[in-house]
Amino acid sequence: MAQPFRLTRHFSIASLLAIAVIACALAWMFGGQAERTLLEQGEQKNAIQLRLIVNQWSVAERKVADRLLASPAAPAASAPEVAALNASFKRSVAGTTIAKLKLFNRGGLTVYSSEAKQIGEDKSAYVGFVRAIGGEPASQLSHRQTFQSFDGQLRDVFVIGSYLPLTDEGGRIAGVVEIYDDVTPLAATIATTRLHVAFFSGALMLALYLALLWIVRRADRILNYQQFELEIEIIRRTRAATETEQALATLETAQRETQKAYDEAVDAKREAETANRAKSVFLATMSHELRTPMNGVIGMTEVLLLGKLDDGQRQQLTIVRNAASSLLRLLTDLLMFSRLESEDIRLHAEVFSPAALVDDVVAMFVPQARDRGVTLACSVAASVPTRVVGDPARLRQVLGNLIGNAIKFTRDGRVEVSVDRVAALPDLVLRWAVRDDGIGIAAERRQAIFAPFVQADASIAKRFGGTGLGLSISKRLVELMGGSIAVDSEPGAGSRFAFTARLEAAPAGADDDAAVAAMAKVMAHSFDARLRRVLLVEDNPVNQLVAAELMKQLGCDVVTADSGEAALEAAAARHFDLVLMDLQLPGIDGLETARRMRQIKSMPGSTAIVALTADAIGDARARCLAAGMTDYLAKPFTFDQLRELLARVGRGSALSVER
């Protein structure tokens, strides 16, 4: 039989805690309201006292104050002007509770203080000064252990410090006065009253508690009696159920139904897996079909921008290019989000250098940062290993999204990217951080921005663009890599996004990048010396024209082939320094063409093969490297990305360009 229900004990503990919490809350609310009233009245009092002091100034004293306010530099503490003002202020505050006075010019420089050592301090960044110089008074109630006043050093005092605008004879703000008023007696009264409120409210709640306790004890007895009767009824019904054959028949029926439900669940799972595979194929097809025409739009715009244009034409084409790029980012985010929703993303482990990854990602954003007047810097801690094993493509995607956001929301500021190792964890966990001087994020919106289609506020999309998917995608990719992502931000003071990723130490002797290890012999040449003769394998006429025109702008001699068979014939007939290979070709696809091309005896092993594909959301990069390709470039691509690819391949760094 179960133990009797002890409601009284639980209720007593909860009630005592509630009494203490409510009493403290009432005392806190009363004290807070009293302090706000004291602060408001203190600010009004300080303003009146300032007007009285100014009205008592003689013409000479007014001129001394005007000269100090107009001076760009602070006077010496022993200057005659300071002594004159000090004597005037002491005379004016005699018999009042004013403890200290300061005088600031419009630049925030302290040109007078009753505490001489504070003359020359710069207060231009103080919130109170900024508000006062704008014409709005600012006050604060504070407790000081020691305080230097006109009459000497005070101890354990409460003061109200008010920043008040000081106007000249024309009504213009000439400077700011800071007045400290000693309100120790009033503050002590508030503290004493707060204790009284806590005591009396606690006593009232205790009386209420005793009344409720009597009711609860009575309820205890009733519940225990009902519990006893319920247990007797349960025992009787349990015996009857175990003795009947009908219960066994019901159990057998339930077992058969359970098996049937299990079989249906297995079938449903199989159908869901089939639908998921079909969805993956559909997403890859959609990615290719959407990005292929975008490649024509962006590519031909790039070609036109490289030509001779007047300012109006260049501006119009730039608008077209930027709009197409925005549409491309939207399509990519939507497709990536769909894959994450269907859990169709897998990590591909390979050896890479964290420092090289950061440098490459930062380098991609240097032109964008320069256009917005943003200083872009990066640092890698000494504790970060030279080589690790992980998925560099996903890390580059997350880091690129955070850097892009930081630059987008920063104007004429600084963006810093850093990588260090989380020393507190036994595993290899790296922390990647991006800090900016941008607009910042309100505290109540910091967690919401990681939800799909959510931004910091409704005006962000109108002012800066975007769909609100980037951080949601980044969060899911980070969690897929065994890490977490967080943000620390203040409105107007910038933001710091940091995420962790769980990696593995690279085996001894591994190259900095898995692709470099596989294709080291391909990377012995440089762009300037070797990458001139180019074979372009592309079946789409528009994409073929775009790539050929961009390559010609780089000084390359381009030969085109519209199928895998034609590409193999061209590669066997003459030597090429570089092959740009589309993956989706009629007949033999790009991957199989690359494999067969590597087997051509007359083709030098130093020939670089770079994949061109519009499948931006699949695992194309891993499949390309496995087929013997050197690098990977997602369509549509820009002139700068193509030039960077050639330079990278030429110097032997096989890193894919992720969009």
Number of helices: 18
Distance between the termini: 67 Å
**Gyration radius, to the nearest Å?**
37 Å
What share of the residues lie within helices? 40-55%
Shape: flat
Taking pLDDT < 50 over at least 5 consecutive residues as the criterion, the unreliable ranges are 511-529, 653-659
Number of strands: 17
Class computed from helices, strands and strand pairing: alpha/beta
Quaternary form: single chain
- Overall residue-averaged pLDDT value: 79
Largest sheet: 7 strands, mixed
| Beta-strand proportion | 15-25%
Q: Could you characterize what this model shows?
A:
- The protein has 659 residues and is α/β, with parallel strands linked by helices.
- 53% of the residues lie in helices and 18% in strands.
- The protein has helices at 7-56, 59-70, 80-93, 127-133, 184-242, 245-305, 311-341, 354-371, 392-408, 458-464, 470-480, 514-518, 527-530, 541-553, 564-573, 590-598, 620-626, 639-651; strands at residues 98-104, 110-113, 138-149, 152-167, 173-182, 350-352, 375-380, 388-390, 414-421, 428-436, 485-490, 494-505, 533-537, 557-561, 578-582, 608-613, 631-634.
- Strands 6, 7, 8, 9, 10, 11 and 12 form a seven-stranded mixed sheet that branches. Strands 2-1-5-4-3 form a five-stranded antiparallel sheet. Strands 14-13-15-16-17 form a five-stranded parallel sheet, with helices on both faces.
- The protein is flat and about 105 Å long.
- Mean pLDDT is 79; it is low at 511-529 and 653-659.
Summarize the topology.
Blueprint: H1 7-56, H2 59-70, H3 80-93, E1 98-104, E2 110-113, H4 127-133, E3 138-149, E4 152-167, E5 173-182, H5 184-242, H6 245-305, H7 311-341, E6 350-352, H8 354-371, E7 375-380, E8 388-390, H9 392-408, E9 414-421, E10 428-436, H10 458-464, H11 470-480, E11 485-490, E12 494-505, H12 514-518, H13 527-530, E13 533-537, H14 541-553, E14 557-561, H15 564-573, E15 578-582, H16 590-598, E16 608-613, H17 620-626, E17 631-634, H18 639-651
Parallel strand pairs: 7-9, 13-14, 13-15, 15-16, 16-17
Antiparallel strand pairs: 1-2, 1-5, 3-4, 4-5, 6-8, 8-12, 9-10, 10-12, 11-12
Helix pairs in contact: 1-5, 2-3, 6-7, 6-14, 7-11, 8-9, 9-11, 15-16
